[in-house]
Amino acid sequence: MAYTIRELQEILRKFRDERDWMQFHNHKDMATALAIEAAELQELFLWKRGDEIDRVASEKRERLSEELADVAVYLLELADNLGIDLGQAIVEKLSKNAAKYPVDKAKGSNAKYTDL
Amino acid sequence: MAYTIRELQEILRKFRDERDWMQFHNHKDMATALAIEAAELQELFLWKRGDEIDRVASEKRERLSEELADVAVYLLELADNLGIDLGQAIVEKLSKNAAKYPVDKAKGSNAKYTDL
Amino acid sequence: MAYTIRELQEILRKFRDERDWMQFHNHKDMATALAIEAAELQELFLWKRGDEIDRVASEKRERLSEELADVAVYLLELADNLGIDLGQAIVEKLSKNAAKYPVDKAKGSNAKYTDL
Amino acid sequence: MAYTIRELQEILRKFRDERDWMQFHNHKDMATALAIEAAELQELFLWKRGDEIDRVASEKRERLSEELADVAVYLLELADNLGIDLGQAIVEKLSKNAAKYPVDKAKGSNAKYTDL
Question: CA nearest B32: which of A31, C42, D43?
Answer without folding.
Answer: D43
